[in-house]
Specification:
Layout: E1 15-18, H1 23-45, H2 49-69, E2 73-76, E3 80-85, E4 88-93, E5 97-102, E6 110-115, H3 116-124, H4 126-132, E7 138-141, H5 150-160, H6 163-173, H7 185-188, H8 193-217, H9 223-244, H10 252-278, H11 286-299, H12 301-320, H13 326-335, E8 339-341, E9 344-349, E10 352-356, H14 363-366, E11 371-375, E12 380-383, E13 388-394, H15 395-399, E14 410-413, E15 416-422, E16 431-433, E17 438-442, E18 448-454
Antiparallel strand pairs: 1-2, 2-3, 3-4, 5-6, 6-7, 8-9, 9-10, 10-18, 11-17, 12-13, 12-16, 13-15, 14-15, 17-18
Helix pairs in contact: 1-2, 3-4, 8-9, 8-10, 9-10, 10-11, 10-12
Length: about 450
């Protein structure tokens, strides 16, 4: 094996990255604005001034956000990191930073920065602050920084963090962190399914009331907007669940509760519409109002069936989102979503690249009891234009974790032993240092089954 390794270096500071909108997003925005222009025009013709004003307000809001976006940037200096997004800016000094988290909030396009202030706030009143505040002081949206090398950014931020001072702070304040685990362990320590359910329920009630309010003031032509609230609200609820609970495997009973919560906005919205329309608060006649509403819906058989269908769709999606059945894997392999590179099946989901060491269709059935191993540094990768050509994991990282089994061949690079995963390497690229965290999933017998890494093109 060639001992040459391409070494990456952090960015020289100060440096500024401008935010940029892709052509696809601009085209999508253009069509959305056209839709609301059409709605406003239809409202003017029909003398429905509510429809017209709502359309105009949304157009103005979209244009304001877009123009503000072009003023956005990320600035890194020797003393601080600053992000300006639209009309809001945030600056954090390096001596305040405790941790940097890749895939923050389970979003593959986010890097989160945790500060001492955020950790201390969580320590004082964890539940309340988790409900009201983000655990991150700064969130960096990677897909808008197209000219930036993510690995070099990660290295630059880590280079500016004072590890000795951070460890001293964590010990002094009683935070227990295992250095061998990924830095987002700070976030995982607060993972609670009960908190996740509570937050999902609160958001479901808010979204449902918003749906009911919009339904009471908008004409029938704008019911599309209220249904959009439900659609986006479902994504919000699911996102909150995964943000607050680190789900290691699929559990039908836990997910069923999420599915039931996802149906609440539609139910609450329909039942609360009459209260908003009549401008009254729930009172002793509430039961009668709700009963009459249900009776009215039952009499309209077509509408009642549509509502039941909508509840069923929300229940199914909330319960089974992210779950892939065996037949789906077979279809995905047939249509090329799971491709075989070298010795392994792989798939790419945005910036996430998954390497399957077993047949993907077996995962949901034979490997439900899984464990997770985080590797922060030391890996090498052969970088092709669109995907990794090969991956090298230091053997010492695996030996430190007891009883892990592997079958891959060993190679030596610069006197260091690596486990090599051959992914074809069509361009015969030399290995480069991989500067981002990597996750290995293990089955109950400690066999490696999946490797998940974040992969970005060279800038």
């Amino acid at each position: 094996m060639d001992d040459n390794v391409d070494i990456k270096l952090p960015y020289e500071v100060p440096i500024t990255f401008k935010y940029k909108v892709s052509e696809k997003r601009l085209m999508a925005l253009f069509f959305v604005i056209l839709i609301f222009i059409s709605l406003s025009y239809l409202g003017l013709i029909a003398e429905d001034y509510t429809m017209m004003m709502v359309g105009i307000l949304i157009i103005v809001l979209l244009l304001a956000i877009t123009f503000g976006f072009y003023r956005s940037y990320l600035e890194i200096s020797g003393d601080y990191i600053k992000i300006k997004f639209s009309y809001i800016s945030k600056t954090v000094r390096w001596d305040e930073v405790v941790s940097i988290v890749l895939n923050a909030n389970n979003d593959k396009n986010l890097i989160g920065i945790i500060t001492k202030k955020k950790l201390l706030r969580q320590k004082k009143n964890r539940v309340l602050n988790d409900l009201l505040y983000s655990p991150y002081e700064i969130l960096i949206q990677l897909d808008f920084l197209q000219q930036m090398d993510v690995e070099r950014l990660f290295m630059t931020i880590e280079d500016k963090m004072n590890c000795d001072e951070i460890n001293e702070f964590l010990q002094r304040e009683g935070f227990l962190v295992d250095d061998k685990k990924e830095t987002n362990q700070l976030e995982e320590k607060t993972s609670s399914i009960y908190k996740a359910y509570l937050m999902c329920f609160m958001w479901a009630v808010i979204i449902g009331l918003l749906y009911g309010f919009l339904s009471s003031i908008l004409s029938g032509d704008l019911y599309l907007i209220t249904f959009a609230v439900i659609y986006l609200g479902t994504y919000k609820i699911i996102g909150i669940y995964h943000k607050n609970y680190n789900e290691q495997s699929f559990n039908i009973f836990k997910r069923l509760i999420v599915g039931l919560i996802c149906t609440l906005p539609l139910i609450i919205g329909i039942l609360s519409e009459d209260f908003f329309h009549a401008k009254v608060l729930p009172n002793r006649d509430t039961f009668m109002i709700v009963r009459n509403k249900i009776w009215t819906l039952k009499n309209d058989e077509a509408l009642f069936i549509m509502i039941l269908f909508g509840i069923g769709v929300l229940l199914y999606y909330g319960t089974f989102h992210g779950k892939t059945f065996k037949i789906q894997y077979k279809i995905y392999k047939l249509i090329g979503l799971y491709k075989r590179y070298g010795d392994y099946y792989c798939n790419k989901d945005g910036a996430l690249f998954n390497i399957y060491l077993v047949d993907p269709q077996e995962l949901n059935y034979e490997y439900m009891d899984i464990d997770v191993l985080h590797i922060e540094k030391g890996c090498l990768v052969e970088k092709d234009k669109k995907r990794p050509g090969g991956l090298y994991i230091p053997l010492e990282n695996l030996k430190e974790s007891n009883n892990i089994s592997w079958k891959q061949r060993h190679v030596f690079i610069e006197g260091k032993q690596y486990l090599y995963f051959d992914l074809g390497n069509p361009d015969k690229c030399l290995p480069k240092e991989y500067q981002l965290p990597l996750v290995i999933y293990l089955d109950k017998d400690k066999n490696m089954i999946t490797i998940q890494m974040s992969y970005y093109r060279e800038k």
